[in-house]
Task: inverse folding
């Protein structure tokens, strides 16, 4: 018997097979869950529908558990409502929602935070933070009592991580939204939490310079290594499952303990070795 037998839900924001959302969705489906997916809409002139194909390349591996794959523009309330209507027609009610959606203009990510453009800030905040509120509001009519909502954040929303820049501000807002939504949904037993993963090789991670972060986390984290997609997949599935039924308004870190460190830790040993050898 699987952890998600009889459970149905939505996974929003899978980009490709390296997405954290896919790692979580895969775990859910392997544990018996049925899932409806959304993807970034393709351009009208893209006959190959690249965004959809990247997602269906993943979901085709689980034909029985995958119930639909549809585009969704989170900047359009009617589009969000249409996805929820599709979920209602397919499932009736749902048990969980995984929100894994974020975006900032690359030009804004690559400049100092103080130079973030006004339009770029509004777009990044709308897509990366407000979209959770919009999705939760649209889903509340079909989300079962005692269900779960989870979203994806990063340590750059808690502390300054140079290079993460405007996205760090968006993640801070997202984490605040998690706490307030947890309060709103609490009377129905619906839990709202965030998953804060360490650096992984994903499409989003490449835009944030994940390569250097991987080396640093390995040297500083108490576990002396980086995390894996499978580890994040299991942790995310846990937050969506009944096993986390007493947890809400939380940020769960899956980073080998990096967030617990108040100093560079063992990285200092490497620095001393380099200094002694020079």
Result:
């Amino acid at each position: 018997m699987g952890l998600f037998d009889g459970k149905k839900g939505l996974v929003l924001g899978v980009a490709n097979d390296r997405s954290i959302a896919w790692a979580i969705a895969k775990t859910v489906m392997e544990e018996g869950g049925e899932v409806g997916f959304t993807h970034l809409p393709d351009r009208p002139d893209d006959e190959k529908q690249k965004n959809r194909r990247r997602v269906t390349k993943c979901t085709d591996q689980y034909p029985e558990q995958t119930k639909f794959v549809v585009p969704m523009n989170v900047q359009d309330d009617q589009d969000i409502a249409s996805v929820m209507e599709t979920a209602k027609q397919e499932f009736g009610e749902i048990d969980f929602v995984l929100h894994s959606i974020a975006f900032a203009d690359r030009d804004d990510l690559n400049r100092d935070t103080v130079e973030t453009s006004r339009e770029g800030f509004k777009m990044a905040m709308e897509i990366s933070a407000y979209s959770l509120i919009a999705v939760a509001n649209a889903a509340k009519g079909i989300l079962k009592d005692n269900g779960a909502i989870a979203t994806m954040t990063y340590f750059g929303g808690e502390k300054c991580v140079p290079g993460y820049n405007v996205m760090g501000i968006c993640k801070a807002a997202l984490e605040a939204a998690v706490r307030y939504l947890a309060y709103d949904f609490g009377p129905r037993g619906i839990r709202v939490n965030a998953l804060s993963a360490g650096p992984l090789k994903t499409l989003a991670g490449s835009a944030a310079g994940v390569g250097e972060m991987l080396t640093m986390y390995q040297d500083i984290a108490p576990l002396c290594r980086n995390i894996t997609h499978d580890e994040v997949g299991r942790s995310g599935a846990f937050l969506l499952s009944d096993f986390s039924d007493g947890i809400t308004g939380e940020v769960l870190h899956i980073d080998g303990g990096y967030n617990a460190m108040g100093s560079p830790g063992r990285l200092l040993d490497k620095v001393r070795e380099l200094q002694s050898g020079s």
Notes: The longest strand covers residues 143-153.
